[in-house]
Amino acid sequence: MESSSTTQETGIGIFSNQRYKMAAIVAGILVLAYVLVNLFVIGGDGFIITLNNLVAPLLAIITTIFAAILLLQIRANVRSRLLWGGLFAGWALWAIAEILWFVFGYLGQEVPYPSIADLFWLVGYIPLGIGLYSRLREMPLKLTSSQKLALWGSSLATIFITLAFVILPVFQEYDASNRLGSIISIIYPLADLVLLVSVLRLLFVYRSGDYGFSWNLLITGFVLMTIADLVFAYATPLGLYYPDQKANLISTLGNSVPYNLSYLVWIFGIYALILVIKEQQPIEINAAQPKLVPNVHMLISTKSDETIIDASSNLGLIFDFDISKMKSLAEILHIPEEGAQSIFDKIRSGEKKEQPITANNRYGVPLDLRVSGTAIFSPNEEYSGQNVLLRTLVESDYTIDDKLTGYQKSIVNYLMQICGDNEEIEIKELLIDYYLAYLKQLYNFVYRTGGGHLGLLFLENLGQTSKEHQWQFQFEPKNLPTHTEYSLDVLREELPVLVDTAKRFASQLTDEKSVETELQAISAQFSEAVHKNVAYYNKKK
User: Fold this and answer.
1) Smallest Cα–Cα separation from 272: which of 208, 203, 212, 214?
2) Please, what is the Cα angle at 401 between 399 and 303, to 5 degrees?
3) What φ, ψ does residue 375 adopt, rounded to 5°?
4) Is 83 exposed, middle or buried (0-12, 13-18, 19+ CB in 10 A)?
5) What angle do CA 238, 240, 246 make, to 5 degrees?
6) Which of 29, 83, 362, 383 is 20 to 30 A from residue 351's alpha carbon, by CA?
7) Beta-ladder partners of 386
8) Which residues pair with 298 in a beta bridge?
């Protein structure tokens, strides 16, 4: 189930929204100007310090407002409250800290350390950590060996750098007169490490689609914030953070720029989520019955004059045929002679496409029949007869093909390959139509229960299951597109697993009884013939 859009697969479909696109362009221009101002200290040291101190609280307030909008947009449920409630609370506490820090600086006072602002910053780590941890628990992902290596390598490198260049110097420069300040100087980098390791883990969860793009922006914001905090913690004890109120690259590009950009990236990540969730709608379920696939394959062999010389034993179970009393194809199928001759002529001419006809069985009941075959030629290119394949659907008996001998089954498989019939495509469409109906029903149930946010989580859960099995299926937010370009074996294995995954996800929101009620509602829409046809072709190899 791949995305039908290259834009969506690359995770930039959100830029089709003109408001978001324009906001991103304007922000990009402002960011470029902001970086250049800091890089070349345009306006002087005092201006740079004031600018950086002013930008942080403004962006922090906007981040908090956007988080509040997103939280109001999400319907109440435990998962949503824990994740987005935690992130909103953390950002709100940090916004208060930013405002206090700016006020202290504006009043011309030297900001004490620790101060009341540090209290809000430190407390803010708690709900942020809880929110991110709940996100990790919701979406467990089995990492590949290379991913594990990358995660452990980056995590260990970050831990080593933090211990060597931040925490160890704090111990070496321990100030007994400011014990609380020393303790807080250790707590900050440790808290940053916890957040950073968490978001590094999330990098392997979100890869494509607008929802993944939104979350990757949020992750990038946490990475930028952690880098800025660690640079600040390293530079401050060494007197490198705006020494003598002078701007330097460590203070600007090392701390202030990534610090303030983290808020901006969060804003655009949250804004993207607001737009994506707002676009979520229930998925329409096609009430039409899936097209059944013929389950009976019969063989007829003829001589050069089109008289029948052999036939598979299952032919007599459906049509009035006795191998000891040979009849013509027209007599067996109860069709006009010219109709039978037309079939033979097309096969002899090399026609590979199946011919749909209507025939009458031994009881005079009309049957939809599909006819194909191949002409047989001698080594000296003389026409010597035909092998004809007949396919039809017999809903009441799925054992008729068991009458075929091993040799006849090999002939059937050969004819199916060279005659280019559409049976495999038909089976794929049957299975997809059948199982997608259950997935759509469960998606709609999740949407009604928890809104667009949980609808996205539902699709994300299916996507993660697909990745874990290396199926490479994509699930887009707006619908569950149907494609048949995957192998039949993969579909047989994957579709039931995805429905089971969807059932477990939906059951966690409510209860198993409610989920079974939803599934029964879809099951009741399918006829017994559909259920039997799916069961037969879901197992047949």
Assistant:
1) 214
2) 150
3) -80, 150
4) buried
5) 150
6) 362
7) 302, 375
8) 390
Three-state DSSP class for 374? strand
Q: What does pTM read for this prediction?
A: 0.73
Answer yes or no: are the C-beta atoms of 270 and 66 closer than 8 Å. Answer: yes
Helix, coil or strand: residue 231: helix
pLDDT tens for each residue of 260-287:
999 999 999 999 999 988 888 888 887 7
Q: What is the pLDDT of residues 172-182, one digit of tens each?
A: 776 666 778 77
Closest CA to 214 of 140, 144, 96, 135: 135
Report DSSP state, residue 363: T
For residue 403, what are the contacts with CB-CB under 8 A and spacing of at least 6? 312, 313, 314, 317
Strands (E) located in 96-222? none
Q: Which residues of 354-388 are buried (b: 16+ CB within 10 A; e: fewer)?
A: beebebbbeeeeebebbbbbbbbeeeeeeeebbbb
Amino acid identity of 280?
A: Q
- Assigned CATH class of 296-421: alpha beta
Q: Would you state the structure tokens that stand for residue 158, as one six-digit string?
A: 């970050």
Domain boundaries, given as residue ranges, for the chain:
17-279, 296-421, 425-539
**Beta-carbon neighbour count of residue 511 at 10 Å?**
11
Residue 479's pLDDT is 55
Q: Scanning the structure block, which residue is given the tokens 């930008």? A: 55
Cβ-based neighbours of 7, under 8 Å, separated by 6 or more: 13, 15, 16
Q: How many residues does the chain have?
A: 541
- CA distances to 89, 151, 166, 286 from 198, rounded to whole Å, are 18, 10, 20, 41
Residue 484 near residue 425, CB atoms below 8 Å: yes
Tokens of 134: 């709940």
Q: DSSP 3-state assignment of 373?
A: strand
